[in-house]
Amino acid sequence: MNDNEKSTRLTTASGKPVYEYENSQSAGPRGPLLLQDFFLHEKLAHFNRERIPERVVHAKGSGAYGTFTVTNDITKYTKANLFSELGKQTRIFLRFSTVGGEKGSADAERDPRGFALKFYTEDGNWDLVGNNTPVFFIKDPKKFPDFIHTQKRDPYTNCKSATMMWDFWSLNPESLHQVMILMSDRGTPVSYRHMHGFGSHTFSFINAENERFFVKFHFKTMQGIKNFTDAEATQMKGIDPDHAQRDLVESIENGDFPRWAMKVQIMPEAEAATYKWNPFDLTKVWSQKDYPLIDVGVIELNENPDNFFAHVEQAAFAPAHIVDGISYSPDKMLQGRLLAYPDAQRYRLGANYEHIPVNRCPYMVSNYQRDGQMRVDGNGGSQPNYFPNSFDGVYTDEKYKQPAEDLGQHVVADWFDRNAEGENDHYTQPGNLFRLMSAEARQHTISNIVGAMKGISGEKRELIINRQLCHFFRADISLGLGVAQGLGIDVTQHAGSMMHGN
To answer: What does the record give as the active site (predicted)?
Structure first.
């Protein structure tokens, strides 16, 4: 670059022009450095603070901007403005992630994948925060910290522990459905582009007549499903630990924009009480024969963020963020996340995290939240910071009131057993899933389970393995036998007790 092309003067953060950028000021060419070299201190101090706390879960991720386009009329179910007319487009941001690993972990790890969408709508931002699986390992949020601890590092060895994972899963048979998906080749997708996404939880729609419908969200990849075998995933971890990030960036750069078809399952509110499964149990799916998929629209990713940290790392999602026409459900895990997710973002990014551009609603926002670290928008100026007041004319709008929820006439507050009678069939759906797999997929799943369980060690090894085998046998006898054979366990003498969980 010649002198005529230089147009931007280098300055400190406070705007003072910088004379020397690369050499520290010192007492002589070989002497000690001077305290007065403020720019040296500014550079080092900022460098020390460049890393914000990583997410406790979903730490490593990738993301991009795009659009959601309505292709089918669902206004009889919801009055949400983003679905109001065919062809309507809404800007979105989608973040993919692995769940259990740290920021430096490999993209090809056997792990669920996060699938978090932010819709920038005229009625506010709607965050739909799910995974690439329709179910999860647990169904009560009180168990979430314990579960995540087993996916992280052993407090003694500081290594990942198969013993911790399988001990927890074997003691919580509700996990079996998700374990079956994780241990199939679906646990190692080839890329973020080649996997489905799900809202996972049960949410609700509210229409213009204030009728409530329960809803599950599905995002079907239009690139086709592609998964690694366990051997291929292991190889990819060594070849390129960032392969999924690289694939997403390059596909968008090349104009090969990833797309997903958005579909929903709709359950009338009255049918929730009589459905064969608890429709709010995150470890269960709704049969698509009972509640077929309904087309809604298409999401397309067509814009790479120009700075990973500013957009992807600082993106903050919370299922508490809904818009008019969309609401919650009695799903216990969802109810727990309504508190936990915004709390996590305030810890990680600060109280004003929704002022960061990737999280900011692009339409009007009006409230009385003031102050806090990194408030850079004028902080409301001289306007009142309380409500009601006699000055600013801000009002509440009754038309956005949601219909009352019917909780029954004799609702009792108590600590209910999540696996009480009628809520304790943890085997039918995982068994059905296994039997729906092709012969090759069943063999891969068994092989992946065997490989993962061989890492169980310690004095409780036999106890944990036998306990988990009970669950596999109860889901499907051939599954249990296959895993037992792979682990070298002779079950002929007590197969009956295993199949009955004794």
So the answer is: 58, 131
